[in-house]
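Annotators were shown the component list below and the corresponding predicted structure, then asked to write short factual statements about the assembly.
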Amino acid sequence: MSDRPIIYLDYAAATPVDERVEAAMRPYWRDSFYNPSANYQAARQVHAALEAARTKVAHWLGARGSEIIFTAGGTEANNLAVHGVMRRYPDAKVVVSAIEHESLLAPAGNYEHQETAVGSDGRINLENLRATIDAKTVLVSIMYANNEIGTVQPIREISQLISEIRRQRRADGNGLPLYLHADAAQAANYLDLHVARLGVDLMTLNGGKIYGPKQSGCLYVKAGLELEPLMYGGGQERGLRSGTENLPAAIGFAEALEIAQAARHDESARLKSLQRQFIAGLEKKLPEAIINGSLKYRLPNNIHVTIPGVDNERLLIQLDEAGVMAAAGSACSASSEESSHVLHALGLDDATARASLRFTLGRGTQATDIELAVKALGQAAAK
Ligand SMILES: Cc1ncc(COP(=O)(O)O)c(C=O)c1O
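Structure shown to annotators:
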């Protein structure tokens, strides 16, 4: 047995399932395995449990249960948002930010689409966004928080801009709706998810990023907004997601969301202090290191750094050998030969992007982990 430390700093890629989540899911594998659509008491209880999970999710979003569509994770929710709207308006246009997750960019690529740029700090510029939206735009999709650099977008201001454009459209006699979707997969541990405060029409959440099961999550769909389904069949999930419901996943996701949202202020404060410690450590050990993305509008668990001249793949291997698990680029795509589209959107060239690493902290991270990780990074970069 090696006595090297195990320091997991890749929480943006995956989180371990919380014990309380696991316990909440357990009855639904064997004891309460019934199909929620079946017509006997035991199944009706399972159906009630599914609806209670939906209500729980809705509560944290300030939404109604009927506005929550359970999905198998963030990719499916993003696909449902984009295809769901665009298949109803095939001649219309979708606007996305240049730093969206692949699961949003790829479906958007099937339609007339336009990207809105971000500044070198990773933030959307509202005037640029306004200029990108035209009379044919039906959907705007801007992620709440970025998975690589942790940048938080001004969703509320964006929704105010959208409302303004809607008013103008009405005045112009343009009957095309304009919807705002936010991918909040990385946001739910730390940020407010109240849909009316944010002003979103559609929002993606993902259980695998919030200490819930992978392939769980939901799409919030504002009442009255009609989507085209991705999958057709028995008509479950208001006809938007046919297939026998995944009870353990829905129950686990709802429990995970509740735990994460209830703890978000305390956990954000705790991680912010560890994030500061990490950055201060870098300044001391690797003064040439550059932090990418806004420091102010940033998730408290993200440190994304360029160390000029290093090869991030080599560094990751060395860090792994030292017991530190981190990421280069997006760990959310299975493998990528290309350097990150997010870093390119910030204006980084290929060589700089390939000298960049992401560390994401989480519930298990302690000050000693940060100390050891910074030390290991300093040693690896010096080799
Ligand atoms: C911002 C964002 N959106 C969507 C996804 C896709 O989620 P999943 O791979 O669980 O379907 C991820 C992570 O992988 C993500 O970070």
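Statements collected:
1. The CA atoms of residues 8 and 365 lie 8 Å apart.
2. Residues 264-285 form the longest helix (22 residues).
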